[in-house]
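2024-03-11 09:14:02 INFO queue: dequeued item Tubulin beta chain, len=387
2024-03-11 09:14:02 INFO validating residues
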Amino acid sequence: VGVAFWEKIIQEHGITPEGLYTGNNPQQIERANVYFTEAQGGRYVPRVIACDLEPGVLDTIRQSKFGGLFRPDSMINAASGAGNNWAKGFYTEGAELLDQVLDTIRQDVERCDLLSGFQLCHSIAGGTGSGMGSLMLQKVREEYPDRMMSTFTVVPAANSSDAVVEPYNSVLSIHHLIENSDMTFCLDNQALGNICLNVMKKPLPTLGDLNSLVANVMSGVTTSLRFPGQLNADLRKLAVNMVPFPRLHFLMSGFAPLTSTQVQSYRHVTVPDLCQQIYSTNNMMVDVDPRHGRYLTCAAMFRGKVSVKECEDTIWNYAEKNASSFVEWIPNSTQIAVCDIPAIDSKLSATFLGNNTAIQETFNRVGEQFSKLFRRKAFLHWFTDEG
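2024-03-11 09:14:37 INFO prediction written
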């Protein structure tokens, strides 16, 4: 997921796989230093730290088209793997790598003029993303308590599973996410697969297709940080508007326009179209039906040549018509941001974030699976052996 995001924003900023700027719009590079460090010879280097407890994934990145872009010392991996075990990632294997990772973070932070916060991409089903992800969250929070911590978290899907112990890993991680994260954008492969099948009409979606959907959302959420716009919303501003109570920071996300490639050239996208799509259940990137709950707060981020007034009017009209979907004790609960620079593949696009009470369905599902295993004390010895 992380690599898909970097590939996306490298293209948006007009940077080549070698790290050189070849764009034609000065606005592309005006605020590139939010995500990139400018090195010698005008090379732009992503400010990223990639860690894993096994070498396979990072080796793939090193050998990819964009492999030469990342700093070698920002790719940190062990050799043994976490074996889908949260305790290995948190207590044993992950803890051994921790000092090296924190040291690299410290060096990167010292190079910053003004550190806004951290973004963590991980999955809470396996061992590394859940265990080591929780450990990183906790330690970074201790070292930088006043900085924003946002996470893009892939939660286990309802009908597909890589590991039997997913419910254990997830429950242990969710506790850390509740305590140590300021904003958590929930994603799941089931919902992403459904979008590819039903909305984009791809009969056999690959992981690359799913990742590019997530990259769209990540790129949309961070647009206001990366480009000058008419109405900006940085990470902190977003969190202030989206999180009414500290523990309720688990957000659903959506993106528009999503259409099949055959239909794309026949459609003219308008702001009302986008509004209808981003609130649609089919476009949600987590397997939850927002109609089963109510929205506490929402954010809509528009990109492209569009009038702020039109965006505001469309969103207000939607909120008035569907007043029953929003809680009445937070008036004007939708925040809007507008950025003039369009996404690469569409002239007009919108990213949606919603803090909806229906997100509890995800946690209930994981909780039920956890209880079934825990009642029988199944697989527990793998965790207790690690401490």
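2024-03-11 09:14:37 INFO annotate: Residues 268 and 378 are 54 Å apart (CA to CA).
2024-03-11 09:14:38 INFO item closed
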